[in-house]
């Protein structure tokens, strides 16, 4: 498989400028002291649509041909990709058709509608999602943009790490959460090109640990019945991203929900910023394995901030 080159990723970054924010790198002396390391948080919770997903969706939409654009785009997603694709399509002046499970949070449905997406509801299972999507594509002629198993999406997500390396910091390690693997795959590619000696390490919930198990077994093992507070990481690892991860990721560390909540709370209390549970997973993995990261310079991607404030998990 042909992965995006550094030049491809740089072109993608240029291509999506009008669609995205350049998000800040932030740090906390208090968290550094607790961790025993110097941590730089890439705040994609401040990104358009509140998550890194804006990058991949914008890149995929921008690369469509004129004929494809006429019929718009479609996807199935109950989360951040749904909103990201709806917004990218609206900015590009094309329609978007978003298949969402009937039990998707109302806040997510409102976001998709607010960004101009047309929602088609389906039963809350993967088979229903895929069959409904196929019907939508057959009826509209729209181009299916997969949430993470799409090379243009991965190329867009890779621009997040590109901005981190532009800051001139000599990271020893870069960490990201892993669900479908688009962010991790893109991060691993960029880091491999710009600093091959820097380690790329993922954090994953123990209740949705298919990437960890696939990494250990060296073969793709789909997730069955995931159960974690990190709702953005419930999906199975994509095939494209599995290939990138096996070549360019150094390790995947798992954490339980209690550890995720503790890390999430730490960021709320010490940094005064809103993040979603999935976002806290890499920091939780670092804190659980502190001895491994002592005195390092570490970049952590805070993947998003779309959390239901009425359901915060703090006691």
Automatic annotation (TrEMBL):
GO biological process: D-serine biosynthetic process
CDD domains linked to this entry: Thr-dehyd (cd01562)
Keywords assigned: Lyase, Magnesium, Pyridoxal phosphate
Listed Pfam families: PALP
Domain annotation Tryptophan synthase beta chain-like PALP: ranges: 17-304
Named cofactor requirement(s): Mg(2+); Ca(2+); Mn(2+); pyridoxal 5'-phosphate
A Gene Ontology molecular function term of the record: ATP binding
Lineage top rank: taxon: Bacteria
SUPFAM superfamilies from the UniProt entry: Tryptophan synthase beta subunit-like PLP-dependent enzymes
Entries under PANTHER family matching the protein: SERINE / THREONINE RACEMASE FAMILY MEMBER (PTHR43050), SERINE RACEMASE (PTHR43050:SF1)
UniProt similarity note: Belongs to the serine/threonine dehydratase family.
Protein name as it appears in the record: Threonine dehydratase
Organism per entry: Mongoliibacter ruber
